[in-house]
């Protein structure tokens, strides 16, 4: 269980730190209105992912109990998606800030729009419904408890990382993150981490 938890945290962090809709929203709000806006946006995004956590905990356990083969199918679909993410991240442009970032009004409701950003993010939905079961160990605990604990961990990491990056973007790291070469390096490093996790999971299933 400890190994799966470590792999889970590595995967989550690798996916969180790469620019996407959530990251772009937080950084744009940080650039427009500073750290308070970044905090509210990050809280909203994390709250949106908690909704997915509850949905997974409420529905997937019964499905897995009724049809164990469905669980294995989802695991392999999730693994394929993990490899696809690694491929996309490796060749990503890595732009953390740009003139095309979505700009919201200065007095926008950052909590609400952050919530909607994550709730409507297809990548986030795929993670919670496809990748989250990858790290489940049936002998350790019931699936619904696992989903709540690990889903909450994922949401908490989103909050910490997004607010941390939002704080940096609104401060001294703004110029460094705006450099596309630096963004590409971060994306490639995240890609290698995700790929390594995927390979370790294939080896574990074949053992």
Q: What would your notes on this structure say?
A:
With 207 residues, the chain is mainly α. The chain has one domain (2-206). Helix content is 78%, strand content 0%. The protein has helices at 2-16, 21-33, 35-66, 68-90, 110-119, 122-131, 143-169, 174-177, 180-206. Helix 3 packs parallel to helix 6 (122-131), helix 3 runs antiparallel to helix 7 (143-169) and helix 4 packs antiparallel against helix 9 (180-206). Mean pLDDT is 77; it is low at 96-106.
The percentage helix is over 70%
* Number of helices in the DSSP assignment: 9
End-to-end Cα distance: 17 Å
Q: What is the count of distinct domains?
A: 1
Beta-strand content bin = under 5%
Query: H/E series, N to C?
Result: HHHHHHHHH
Tell me the structural class: mainly alpha
Report on the biggest sheet. Answer: none
Shape estimate: globular
Computed over alpha carbons, the radius of gyration is 17 Å
Number of strands: 0
Low-confidence stretches: 96-106
Mean pLDDT: 77
Pfam family, one: LysE
Protein name: Leucine efflux protein
Transmembrane segments: 44-66, 73-91, 111-131, 143-165, 185-204
Membrane topology: Multi-pass membrane protein
Keyword list:
single chain; mainly alpha; amino acid transmembrane transporter activity
